[in-house]
Write a structure and sequence with these properties.
With 105 residues, the chain is an all-alpha fold. The protein is built from 5 helices and no strands. It has helices at residues 2-16, 23-29, 34-56, 62-86, 96-100. Helix 3 (34-56) packs antiparallel against helix 4. The longest helix is centred in the C-terminal third of the chain and has 25 residues, at 62-86. It is elongated. 27% of the residues are buried.
């Protein structure tokens, strides 16, 4: 029952965690909510990957592939994360969640 309330209170912040830099808003405002924090950490890892992808996209030829593949991949993974957050699930994103688990705040 308490977990359901925590999920409902953190749902909005969990959703915005997958929208780029907005994960930082959740990390600052809802770090006491386990549901929101879980999604914010995954969103932060995705955001760091997105920034790295953007930096790599500067490389000639290879950069174009990184940009196209990265954009499609990050959009799909973020959409999946948003849907899972809306459903109230603690869904782990492969690779991303393993890195996110190591983040301590």
């Amino acid at each position: 029952m308490a977990e359901d309330k925590e999920i409902q209170e953190g749902k909005f912040f969990a959703v915005i965690s997958y929208l780029g830099v907005l994960c930082i808003v959740t990390l600052l405002l809802k770090k006491d909510n386990k549901f929101a924090l879980f999604h914010a950490k995954q969103g932060l890892v995705l955001f760091v990957f997105e920034v790295a992808s953007f930096i790599l996209s500067i490389i000639p030829i290879l950069g174009w592939l990184v940009r196209v593949f990265g954009t499609i991949t990050f959009m799909l993974v973020s959409l999946w994360g948003v849907l899972q957050a809306l459903m109230g699930n603690f869904s782990r994103i492969p690779l991303v969640s393993d890195i996110a688990d190591k983040i301590s705040l």
